[in-house]
Known about the structure:
By secondary structure, this protein is α/β, with parallel strands linked by helices. It has 17 helices and 17 strands. Helices cover 42% and strands 17% of the residues.
Amino acid sequence: MASEELSGKAAGWAEAEPGSARIEAPRTLRDLGIRRSLVEDLALKILYLQGELLMVVLADQMRLSLSIVNEAFEHLRKEQLCEVKGMVGGIYRVSATSIGKARAHELLGLSHYAGPAPVSLHDYTRQVRAQSIRGVSFRAAEVEEAFSHLVLRPVTLTQLGTAIASGRSIVLYGPAGVGKSAVAEAIAGIYRDYVWVPYALEVGSQVITVFDSDLHDPSDEPIDEQSDRRWVRCRRPRVIAGGELKLEMLDLQFNPVGRYYSAPLQMKANNGVLVVDDFGRQLTRLEDLLNRWMVPLDHDIDFLTLEGGRRIVVPFDLFVVFATNLDPVKFTDEAFMRRVHTKAQLTYASTWEFHEIFRRVCADFELRYEADVVDELITSLEKSGRHLRPCDPAEIVQQIRWGAEYAGRPPRLDSASVVQACRNYFLSA
């Protein structure tokens, strides 16, 4: 395989600039950078599963040019594995022969993968490096605009901007309700450019699917006809995992029925942002999770294990956001924290911040903002020993709206409605 991969590189595989309109399409089987037999096997499996197909339809399903698929078909026909059944508009209609169907059945026993042709691990690594998230820069004004919907202190904005400039990692920590998840989502949302994500890649004789329609957001713009269609132009990935995160989700996911792999979360997030929310509250032992992140955070590479024990090296190029309401000093060790380049503490709101958040929430829901009523609420919360949490204004206003809807009257921010909202929202002392 190594020699075939080298021949693909020598043929001049062209990486794309971040956000560019295309990755140059390969012109021959040799240019693909993957084994010729893999392409032929893939075509045979598709024909077995779908029956007769026009060559253009087969090429489209494999995301390859018609000339490359023709090249593969000619070899399959010489081996008596495929045959021409007719022509439509000058295009062959082809199918697998009885010998080809028997061979396809054997191939499906090894792997059920029958989708777009994969790219090589070498080409994947090179493209990920070419469109690194660490090559994206933002000015202070852009960062301030991205977080303008949140009420944040200048020192916090500076920390966030520094972390975004690094494109590496940050820990957001502080008590519940202070806006860690909102800040994490805003970090993920600041990136609006596009990168290339492959449908799948080949490692040895194994296929690993990477593009995930549930996680990746493809561009609506038409792709240049000369582009390599094995890649999907997507907005920089934004992947969010919470308390459901398990250690095995960070390794290759082997499908025992289909007999091919799906990329782990961090690999699907390459060139983008991975938010690990509620960090420290996963069912997996925290020590195991911390150890799992050490090498990727430190060396920008990740080691993944195939069935049988073979390990492969893939790029780790993503901005990791850890959000936790636990004390990082108590639940992490020094080695891990050294590898997280920025630590930003989010705290309870000041009186002015609480008012400002309330004012914005009222504006969002078209309620008249009453500063005196909010002052009464602040006094009441402080007397009861409650902190001013940034999340509370939105929750209280929602309670007011629901209560007004139930009573059949317009919502109002007044003392009575706030008292009732607090009675519903807060636990009794």
